[in-house]
Every structure is written in C-alpha cells, then in structure tokens.
Fold:
Amino acid sequence: MKILEKKSQGNYEYLVSRDSPNSFVTESLQKTIINLEYANIDGKYKIIQFTSSVQSEGKTTLISNLAYLLAQRGKKVLTVDLDLRRPKLNRVYGVINKDGLTDYLLGKIDKNSLINHSEDKVDFITTGEKTTSITNVLQSAKLLALFEELKKDYDYILLDTPPVIVVSDALFVNRIADGIIFVVAHAKAKKALVKEAISSLSKTTTPIIGFCMTQYKVSRGSKYGYTYKYYD
Amino acid sequence: MENQEEKGISLLDLFNILLRNWLIIGITTVLVTVVAGIYAFRIATPMYESKSDVIVQVEASTELGFDYTTALRLVPSIAEFMKKDIVLNDVINELDLDMTSNEIRKGLSVTSSSTTFFVYISYESVDPNLAKDIVAQIIESARKIANTDETFSSFENKISKATTDPQPGVYASPNKTLYVIIGFLLGGIIGVGIVLIKELTNNTYRSKSELEDDFDIQVLGVIPSFEVKEEL
Structure:
C-alpha cells in the first residue's frame, strides 16, 4: 500500500545522521560503518561502488549518510555520482549539476574545479552536463586515470551507480571500484531480480563486500530486539 | 556477534502485517458489506409469513371428556397429513392457484410438538394476502378431507377450526441486519485472508537472515526506513 506511505525519499538535503544524530537510524548507520571497517581491515577497499537491483532502493541516501559519518570519524571521503541518467547526489549538497564528471572528461574543467567541498567535510563530484554516450564515458581511460589519482588523496571514495537490472552502467563502473556494496531495500525488489543482479556482478572481478538492507520497516516491538543486539 | 532471530511469525508480527495492510482489509470489508446490503435491500425479494394453528382433540368413547393420549399420538400424523398432496391439491383447486403442490410445500412449514395438542401452520410468500389465504385454506382443506375421505377416517372430527385467525403475512425475510452483519464479518475475513496470502507468497527480501540464507555474502547493516523530520 504505497499510497499512504510517508515520503522518506525526495528530500535529499536532510541527512538523518547529521540532523538526528541520536536516532535509531543513525545508530544503524554507525553499525554499518563498523562492519565495513572490519571488512576493510586491510584497507583494500578504497573505491566502493554502491548499486542495487532496481530503482529507488535508497542508495543515494545511504551513500550521503555513510560519507558524512566517515568524515565525522576523520576519514577523507569523496562521493561520486556515476548515475549519469538520473543524477541525485547533487541534491544532497544542494547544488546544480554543473562542472561535473562529464565536463572534466571533455577537458572543460580541471581536477580542482571538478571536486566540490561540502560543509560537512565531505568532497563530492557531480555528473556534470548530460550526455548520451554514457557507456563511452564510463569506459573511458581518462575516467580510470582520474580515479587512480583520486585514490591517493582519499581514504574512501563512494560511487553512486544505477541499478544493475535497469542498465549495464553499474557493470562498467566495476573496473574502477575495489568493492561493491549491494543495496537491498526491504520488501521492494523481487528475490529473482536480486539474485540475477548478484550473479551478473559476481561474473566481474570486483568483489561484493556485502549487502546493506535499507528502508527496513521496523515494527515497534522488534525495535527493542534490535537495539539489544548491539550489546552482544 | 550474530544474533539468530527466531524463525516463524510472532503474534506481534501478524498484528503489524494486518496493521500495515489495513487499507486492503478495509476495502474488502466495505465492499462485501455493500454487496450484502445491496442484496438484502434491493435484490432479494421480501417474503411475508402468515401463521395459524389448530388443536387436535379426541373425544373419549366411554365417558365424557377427552382421550388425551390418543390425541397426542395423532398430532404428528396430522401435521404430516397437512403437507400431503391430497390436502395441497385441494387448496390449489379451492383458491384456483397457478401452482403445484411442490411449490406450495416449499413455502409451507407445519410443526408440532410431542407435548402439546397444537399443530402450527405457517406459509411464506411474496404476497402477504396470498400467504394468509393459503394458511386458512390448508386448515379448511385438511378438515374437509379428514371429515369426508374414508382413507383418513381416523382423523375425522379430530382437527379443530383455526385456533388463531390467519392474518395477512408479516415481513419475514431477508433479515437485512443479519445480511449486513454477515457481509461485514465475511469481508473482514476475506480481507485478512488476502493479506495473509499476499504476505506468505511474498518473494522479496524482508530480513537480514533471508539475505544470508540465499547468498554467501555478509550483511553489513540494516537501516530502518525513516521520515524526514525537520527537528527531533
């Protein structure tokens, strides 16, 4: 019954981890970071690609919040919008999509103007001008080179990419990423689609670091059950 | 770290499922109630019932008074006799009805008890006056045949005149309130059934453990859905 569900999407400027630091949601995000840090104990996952099986599973919201919390922990974080078809990351930082990735690749701007700095100490790169040759952009050598360079400056680079099932963009981004975090929204995508997406990602050389379940509908009763789990 | 959740569904989960799908349940309840209401108030033909009764009396042969034992034994037979074709055909002839004896029997109910001398006759029809006429005529015809036909000589003079004057039929069915109540309950049950089937045949991921069961990939975090609040 989607009709009556309150909107949790759409207002990207609201960062739950920043604006409700003591909330249960922020706590869950912190826990996700702790698990990620454990998975990344050797520091081999610098560039992390976020994808999902279908649209609107909460990738952008997750990335922007994780980026904020990582920056809070003193990490140098860069978020990059690689969803060239439906860019959304710029909304998080309240800027328009100009001087972004496509402009840089076309040589219109240099690396310094490409990277934006937010008030939350998170750096971000927008998609830039819309282009029709998306696959060319994502497969370009210049993009690969850019990320090789960026790797040196940051602890974490989080990539927002389109869903796997919709377009193959996410599979091209694989070459850039060190690892994938696969987002599964609670009770949204059919299991078969998730399995299909995972199997196509598994065919690439980039490892899947783990899942992250978003938009979990917490019932009042199980909420306590969850909070106690942190004291295992 | 791993906290195994119980498999299966708790009463609270069930309650939450129903609460989440209140709209489906509400719609089916209203829909079925309305259908039942339309049937009861608009479609169903109203039926009118007329009632009467007779008393079975047997005069004793030896002394003045009555032979109650024999009378009691006769009561069920007389009740049966009133439903016979011979009586009903006479009713059809007398009232010049365009009906068969079987059709009359459908609306006719003749009851007696083993402890009283009364036989109760009631007839349901779409026409209140016809109901009254048929009840009255059944008593008349039964008396006439009992008193004249040799076959039923043991009933001779045993059936009294109508002890209650047949009145034009009163509204008997359908019971509108009952229809609406049953419609309401049935609608609720159907709604709950639909919701449960929908939930049980759901093929999306709804918990961390479901993901872990299907893939050999860790779940880094479970982020609850949240609403955008301007202030906590």
